[in-house]
């Protein structure tokens, strides 16, 4: 009877462990129990690639591969349908693959400090996205499909090459904060930014927006703090 109680206790402990998920900081350890891993942190490991086997981490929710030397992403990554947080910051990526649209549960996407010149239209499928950090790339425009990002609250587009605030952002009525600072050639912000009634922060530091236009923005966005 005592033995049975011990076995039941061990089983409950294992179930509790599985429910809580496993955090790993190496690919090797993650692949030992791939279905249990919910968090994988591979920050500044000097990685030049990720294995296709990353797709076997079917319960992964949090993936941070920032600060590496990745030039491409494996298809297996885009099979991680439970992923909520993806950090690709400070790698050597030149493309954000169209397959990003497969990650339908993604809530936070960070791909700043790369050399990505365009955002794929498939990003519009990520309707649970709350925050995007795309700072310090070479972006000049955003796809119109981003109008479908009905949960988007915060977007960082600083240090890019926009000439104007992308029109598609003025349709994102859930937006609360926009950072387009240090887009030094940016001079135009459309009047329909007034449609963003929840906007509380607009950062236009070190842009080319004129003083007269800033006064216009203050009238258009009376409840928004404008950093300039």
Q: Can you put this structure into words, describing what you see?
A:
The protein has 228 residues and is an alpha/beta fold. It folds into 2 domains: 22-152, Leucine-rich repeat, LRR (right-handed beta-alpha superhelix), CATH 3.80.10.10; 168-228, Leucine-rich repeat, LRR (right-handed beta-alpha superhelix) (Alpha-Beta Horseshoe), CATH 3.80.10. It contains 3 helices and 10 strands. It has a 10-stranded parallel β-sheet with strand order 1-2-3-4-5-6-7-8-9-10. β9 (201-203), α3 and β10 form a beta-alpha-beta unit. It starts with a helix and ends with a strand.
Total count of strands? 10
Overall morphology: elongated
Task: Sketch the topology as an H/E string, one letter per element.
Answer: HEHEEEEEEEEHE
State mean pLDDT (0 to 100 scale).
93
Strands, helices and their partners?
Elements: H1 2-20, E1 22-24, H2 27-32, E2 37-41, E3 62-64, E4 85-87, E5 108-110, E6 131-133, E7 154-156, E8 177-179, E9 201-203, H3 211-220, E10 225-227
Parallel strand pairs: 1-2, 2-3, 3-4, 4-5, 5-6, 6-7, 7-8, 8-9, 9-10
Quick overview of this protein structure:
With 228 residues, this protein is α/β, with parallel strands linked by helices.
